[in-house]
Write a structure and sequence with these properties.
single chain, alpha/beta, about 30% helix, eight-stranded parallel barrel, five-stranded antiparallel beta sheet
Length: about 425
Amino acid sequence: MRRGTAAVAALALALTACTAEARQPVGPGAPPLLTIPSVDYYKKWVNGPNPAGDPAVFPITVWMQDPSGVENGEKLGRAFPKIGIDVGIGLWEDEWWHLRQEGLQETDWRVYVDGTRVDDVLADTAHARNYVGYLIADEPDMTKVYGDVFHPDMQPSAILKAADAVRAKDPTRPTYLNFSPWMGTPTGEVGYGHVEQSYEQDMRTYCSAADIASADYYAWTHPDRNHTVGAYSYGQVIDTMRKWCGPDKPLYGFVETGHPHDRGEIIQPDQLESAVWNTVLHGATGVNYFAHSFYTDGTGEYSSVLTRPEITARVAAVNARLKSLAPVLNAPNLPGVTALADNGTPVAVLHKQVGGERWVLAQTDGTKDDPRSRAARVALTVPVPSGTAVVVGEDRTVPIADGRIVDDFGPYQVHVYRF
């Protein structure tokens, strides 16, 4: 990975240099072109997470952490940036909020704060950079009916009204919402209750309240083994949300770092890495880690990304790789690349161009019938007849012959090619 880091960073300013192929129609039999929002989207918020629209920024966040909390002798607001987590989503809204705010100011971390705290944010001009946006709600699509109790303030129209009120008070920062499997999975309409308009329209209204959105579905660790278990479900969440949120809105992958249910499994490093990359290969433009863990005996912790050394190391490595590739990941997706595995395993592919170099990112994927993915020999068609591709981060090259790259993949393995 390190071999390609400097080259990628040097190309950041050339992000908008795309060839005419980006304007060509997708050919017969080719997969539909995956569209992602431009980083220019962020420029509208002068106090937001990326006001310059810098293509070298790939957002990496963590859910609901207390910057004044301590793990391994260090305050969390200092510990998270050391492993590449630059922003927190939410500060707990309770009587201890001001202590967490003090921890935020002391550590100089950055967060999305609760949407009820707009006045506090606007008053704290000395620390304006530490507040990058507002968390409007968590899982309103599920909590609108929770424990058989109906919560009208979680209905789509109510959430949109709350978000618009925050936007009116502070138009310099974006709104953020996280949703549940009701929005993020292909069968989300099953169990969705108290429909306000229709399921589809409710999902679109919810997403219109979010300037940036995510949805959680912990497929690797789900307690019901009859559910889909595999990294492909994380990318499927992004695919599903695109239907409701459109092509121009940043969607962040949501991946657990521990034991997110009171039953089920605890995620392992390889599973975590595969899930993160699956969201990216399906068009996620940022990543959020869910670090809370819960157990059947009632115990739990909220920063498992720091308390599990093997997870800490893997998260740091994954984050470093994502950041090194940020100008590539933020570049528009291009047509012209397809993938075929020798055993029928699906392959997720991105094709980019930054400056004068092409990039192809590929991951063996899964399906509902074969969710854990399989090793495969994959043929990638590329719009270059011959040459050599560098496999970034692997200290090797592969030939391009007859417009194809042929390479071996392990289950859910990611290869990044530059040529």
